[in-house]
């Protein structure tokens, strides 16, 4: 039985500021999805100020009706957000009219179609205050690092390795790597997560899709800052794919991601339970939640709130320590992102103000002065 799992997310307005989603928006989304005849099942959740629509159906990926449904949910939510004057109401809806696919219109999308296995455990990861490249490090660990995933060494169905599909978000190109043989080649690219993002991972032993992520970059689409592209990612687990625990393990060591305050900082990605997914310190630090489901004929049995486990307390503590240290650097790199990666800048205005005060450095003049000083 072929099932499609579609996760479509958008920030429709923050409550309060950019920290969370108002319950009335979640209720509105619930109501809209409940009224739809297209879905087998659905869940509405949030991470920070982003609403996640988790939907199962039989229409495949990029289905215009499903995308339209999500778009309409976000429009309805926008009305409520406007009424409550929530912060940045409708911020991720970049266009006024739906054109057949939400890609390129603001919302983030991760979807995959597959034959439901005898038992089908999946994890939906969702992050706030960061960007799509945030999945590069954990996806690499899950599917390519034997120090994370022992299955790569001792499970005969994993031992052949995985195929990685990578997007270049600047040039709009895609490329595939076969691992483990091309591990070093892959790392040249995905180590630069602001540009190269892992879009999907496939099992080499079955050819089956194992993971897919959202790779939208809103600022590139809109040509101006419109919020970070808080990403989602789906990972199928077990039986020749990473075990649930192997898929979660990379998050035990919080890696640094771009985003946080004003989309212009580096911070640790903190794994949290759903009720801790409300980034408030300096609008962060960036959060990730993991929602586990068993699929049954497309029905979503779950979620189990996987990072709510005490075993991730230490990761949260580490993330808080890293956050504390980075915060102490204030407006200095590497806490603050390099000029070209910041989502906000006052540089052009400051430059205009200082026009005429920048003068060429005259080396001969300086040498003369130094010589004179030296003679004294
Ligand atoms: C980060 C984010 C927030 C805002 C910040 C300032 O992705 O959304 O950190 O950038 O709260 O928001 P504005 O410019 O709307 O006052
Ligand atoms: Mg927001
Ligand atoms: Mg957000």
Features:
376 residues; alpha+beta; Alpha-Beta Plaits; 2 domains; 9-stranded mixed β-sheet; 10 helices; globular; binds fructose -6-phosphate; binds magnesium ion
Write the topology of this structure.
Elements (H helix, E strand, L loop, with lengths): L1 E9 L12 H13 L5 E7 L2 E8 L6 H20 L24 E8 L4 E9 L7 H9 L6 H4 L7 E7 L4 E6 L4 H8 L5 E8 L5 E5 L4 H5 L9 E5 L7 H5 L7 E4 L5 E4 L1 E2 L15 E10 L2 E7 L7 H15 L19 H7 L9 H13 L1
Parallel strand pairs: 13-14
Antiparallel strand pairs: 1-3, 1-4, 2-3, 5-10, 5-14, 6-7, 6-8, 8-9, 9-10, 11-12, 14-15
Helix pairs in contact: 1-2
Give an account of the 3D structure:
With 376 residues, the protein is of the alpha+beta class. It has two domains: 115 residues, 2-Layer Sandwich (Alpha-Beta Plaits), CATH 3.30.70; 250 residues, no CATH class. It is 26% helix and 26% strand. Strands 5, 6, 7, 8, 9, 10, 13, 14 and 15 form a nine-stranded mixed sheet that branches. A four-stranded antiparallel sheet has the order 2-3-1-4, covered by helices on one side. A two-stranded antiparallel sheet has the order 11-12. A hairpin with a 2-residue loop joins strand 2 and strand 3. Helix 1 packs antiparallel against helix 2. The longest helix has 20 residues. It is globular and about 90 Å long. The termini are far apart. The structure holds fructose -6-phosphate and magnesium ion (2 copies). One magnesium ion (MG) binds next to loops.
């Amino acid at each position: 039985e072929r099932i499609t799992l579609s996760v479509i997310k958008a920030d429709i307005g923050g409550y309060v500021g950019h920290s969370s989603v108002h319950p009335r928006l979640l209720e509105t989304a619930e109501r809209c999805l409940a009224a739809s005849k297209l879905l087998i099942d659905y869940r509405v959740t949030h991470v920070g100020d982003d609403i996640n629509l988790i939907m199962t159906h039989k229409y495949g990926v990029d289905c215009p009706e499903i995308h339209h449904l999500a778009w309409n949910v976000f429009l309805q939510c926008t009305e409520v957000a406007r009424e409550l004057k929530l912060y940045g109401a409708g911020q991720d809806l970049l266009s006024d009219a739906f054109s057949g696919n939400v890609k390129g219109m603001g919302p983030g999308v991760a979807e995959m179609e597959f034959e439901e296995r005898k038992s089908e455990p999946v994890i939906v990861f969702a992050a706030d205050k960061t960007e799509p490249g945030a999945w590069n490090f954990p996806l690499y660990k899950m599917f390519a690092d034997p120090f994370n995933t022992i299955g790569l060494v001792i499970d005969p169905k994993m031992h052949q390795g995985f195929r990685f599909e990578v997007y270049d978000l600047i040039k709009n190109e895609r490329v595939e790597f076969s691992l483990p043989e091309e591990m070093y080649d892959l790392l040249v690219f995905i180590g630069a997560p602001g540009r190269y993002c892992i879009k999907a991972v496939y099992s080499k032993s079955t050819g089956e899709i194992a993971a897919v992520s959202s790779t939208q970059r809103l600022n590139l689409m809109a040509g101006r800052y419109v919020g970070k592209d808080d990403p989602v990612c789906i990972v199928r687990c077990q039986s020749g794919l990473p075990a649930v625990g192997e898929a979660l393990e990379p998050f035990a060591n919080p890696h640094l991601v771009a985003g946080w305050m004003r989309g212009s900082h580096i911070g640790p990605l903190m794994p949290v339970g759903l009720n801790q997914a409300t980034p408030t310190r300096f609008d962060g630090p960036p959060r990730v939640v993991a929602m586990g489901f068993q699929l049954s004929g497309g029905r979503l049995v779950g979620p189990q709130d996987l990072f709510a486990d005490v075993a991730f307390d230490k990761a949260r503590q580490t993330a808080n320590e890293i956050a504390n240290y980075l915060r102490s650097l204030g407006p200095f790199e590497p806490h603050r992102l390099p000029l070209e990666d910041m989502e906000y800048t006052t540089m052009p205005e400051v430059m205009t103000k200082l026009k005429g005060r920048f003068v060429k450095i005259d080396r001969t003049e300086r040498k003369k002065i130094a010589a004179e000083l030296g003679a004294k």
